[in-house]
Amino acid sequence: MLKINQLNKWYFSSLLISIFVAIPIITVFISFFETTGNYSSILKETFLYEYISNSIFLLIGVLLLTFIIGVGSAYLVSFYNFPCVNFFKWALILSFAVPAYIYAYSLTAFFENYGTAFSILKKFFGEGNYNQAIPKFDGMLGAIISISFSLFGYVYVLTRASFYYQSQNLIELGKSLGFSKQKSFFNIILPSARPAIVAGLSLVAMETLSDFGSVSFFGISTLTTGIYNAWISFDDLALANRLSFFLLIFILGLFLLENFSRKKAQYHSPSKGGFKIKSLIPLTGFKSLLAFSFCLIVFAISFLFPVLQMLYWTIMFPKHFTDLNVTQLLTNTMLLVFLSSCMLISLAFISNYGNRVSKSKFLEILTTFSISGYAIPGIILAVAFITFISWFDNNVINFFGINTIKSFFIGSILGLVLVYFVRFYSLASNGIKSGYLKINYSIDESAYLLGYSKFKTFTNIHLPYLKNSILLIGILITIEIIKELPITLIMRPFNFETFATTAYIFASQDLLEAAAAPSLFLITIASFFILITSRYILKD
Predict the structure, then answer these.
(1) Domain count, the chain
(2) Calpha distance 326→348 (Å, rounded)
């Protein structure tokens, strides 16, 4: 029999974490009922339908493309042996290093009239009217491509990890049933990886709905651009939060739909029969060429293409490169990465384990609600946090005669890290939850019978089992924080710049060539981090 005080300890720890994450989100919900300006009625009569329809169309397009690219590439490198397969296992993750808005700049610069593609054709084939033959990737198509190739890594890394832990038993099961490779994939392999795939697609969905840089660059009117315009152009924060409310409802609907469809299905590997590491199936001839070509094309389009475009800009305009204060920008960026990663991973672990041992429906619902913070655009989440701190300072702190605390949270590294925590809590929580779904509850019960406490079970059994998940989550969090722009712009201390904010400042001044240098440093840092950790994360 488990002790009540032990249960309460884990339960209340998880409860407090979920409440903290939920506070800014609740602020957005409360703002839904505030009075808005005249722009609200104008919006309903003009652009609201366009905002919603474009957001849905963009989401569907990105989800379909990321599913095909992410699951397809993960399946190939996990189950088959072909030339350069070990290279592609980690190289495909490098797409994380490229923000969607930077990819959008590269896509436009390359294919636009008299752009890079035109220059290449002119150099090799001489003068000609090449603009008519060069495809134009702009508008909705450009946004879908830019966001998809920037975000498919979410699906790839989580699905790749799930495929790795699928045992040879599952493959032999398909053979014994007389299934073809295609039927085994759709009937056995793919369903068993469902939690990881859904977790990856959920992250893609939330990031897509929160994207501002690429959709605004391509002139796509979405809920996110509407939120930004309501606040910046019309100074109507209440309306901005109201539009954010619709994003929250949509994301919560997705979570509830998935939980309902999954019900009580279990996805952990069965303990009976043992675990057999699967052997890679060798490919030869045309099939080997197809697998190699697919992975090479994905790698080239998602990573090499934008990097080479920005490298071209940097070489053509070297002064922008030499003028950067690289040391200071690097120190600031990595400080934020370290503090935020430690907080996110440790508290997400505590929250998930608290949910696991308490089995509380209320706590599960609150946790589901709290992770919806990822759906809120960073710019609105930062403002909601500032709004709450100001209210708390004026109505609670001053009531007790204590000096203001605003300076500790607004315009400070502490406040910046806290908003990062709310924004990316879903990333850490979903990743750890996906790993926990693989651990049978019977393992916990056996540990308790052997005299293990909850804490000892957590440290001695769960942490070692989930170490690969921790590293994967660490990479995802690192890349997200390095690329994060709106939160950093609003919450950062005075004169505190990162590579992302520096690139934005140049881009906002129409100096895309100058933005290339800090963007290139951003990608280099992220790529280096991936390179030194991929051997431990994706090892077979």
Answers:
(1) 2
(2) 32
